[in-house]
Amino acid sequence: MRALRLVHLCHTVAAGLLLVACSEPVLNSKRQDEIEQRPTKESEIKKVNLAMIRAEVIGNVFRSLTLSNTTFSGVTITDINDQKIRFTHSRGFANIGWDQVDQKVKDRWGYDSDAFAKAQWEQQLTVAEREAYLDSPEYLQSQKEAEQAQEMLASAKIEKKRVTIEKKIAKLTIEKTQAEAALRILGGHMGTLKGTFHSEDSNASRIKEARNDPESDVNTIGGVVTSKADRNRAQKKIDDKVNLAERELEKLDLAIEAEKRTLRKLPSPQ
Predict the structure, then answer these.
(1) Can you tell me whether residue 77 is helix, strand or coil?
(2) How confident is the model at residue 249 (pLDDT cuts 50, 70, 90)?
(3) CA–CA separation, 194 vs 53, rounded Å?
(4) Any idea what DSSP says for residue 133?
């Protein structure tokens, strides 16, 4: 009987160990996936950030630029990749490797030490080694990461453009509000001017009538009115300002609508 209990106990322990052995790898597998995915996402974000930095530099023009202890004039940056910086200058074009520029340039222009080392290593491969490397899982994974980074970069560029356009629309809208307020003020000035002329004419008419009426109590002193020429000049001055303000308002409306059309053409966020 004791032997049977011992056998039963052994079976129970063995079953428990088997259960632990079966369930533990599942948990480790999930954790392993998280650990493996994190560096990939971090590397993608790093690549996107560096690509954005490089995109800001490409196209910049410098009257003079010193790289690798050489000063170039009339410089335009044409390309920046993992290996080198390409640019045109007054005497032609040049390529400068990342290992030839100082740390200040590296920090500001998107240097990636890992990518540079990898590119240098790839250049040293023989034909057979290169063919083997191109078929390796490491290369395929790096290509996949590069494609994902490019997709993220494209999305980031679109979002940056969207934010820029929205800011421009907001700025133009403020300018439009100010232009509308200025136009209303000019309208008020025009009404005041017309009211002044009307008041002058009414007063002059009353004084004229009073001068012909000996029994009138109206003060007959004054009655001077603005000449027709002066009235025309004053009216034209305000009319010109109103026309200018209306044209400016129309330009702002067109500019806002153009920016909105550009915004609508952007791909929707993923």
Answers:
(1) strand
(2) very high
(3) 60
(4) H
DSSP string, 110-126: T--HHHHHHHHHHHT--
Contacts of 158 (CB under 8 A, 6+ apart): 266, 267, 269
Amino acid at 264: R
Rounded to whole angstroms, the Cα distance separating 30 from 36 reads 10
Rounded to two decimals, what is the model's pTM?
0.52
Token pair for residue 80? Answer: 């920046």
The residue written with tokens 């995915």 in the block is 37
Q: How far apart are CA 95 and CA 269, in angstroms?
A: 37
Q: How many Å is the Cα radius of gyration of the chain?
A: 40
Crossing angle of the two packed helices 137-211 and 127-134, in degrees rounded to 10: 70
Torsion from C-alpha of 112, 45, 59, 121, nearest 10 degrees: 30
Report the 3 state secondary structure along 139-189. Answer: HHHHHHHHHHHHHHHHHHHHHHHHHHHHHHHHHHHHHHHHHHHHHHHHHHH
Mode of pairing for the β-strands spanning 84-89 and 70-80: antiparallel
Note the residue count of the chain: 270
State how far Cα 36 lies from the chain centre.
Answer: 32
pLDDT tens string 146-181:
787 778 778 888 888 899 999 999 999 999 999 999
**Distance, CA of 21 to chain centre:** 53
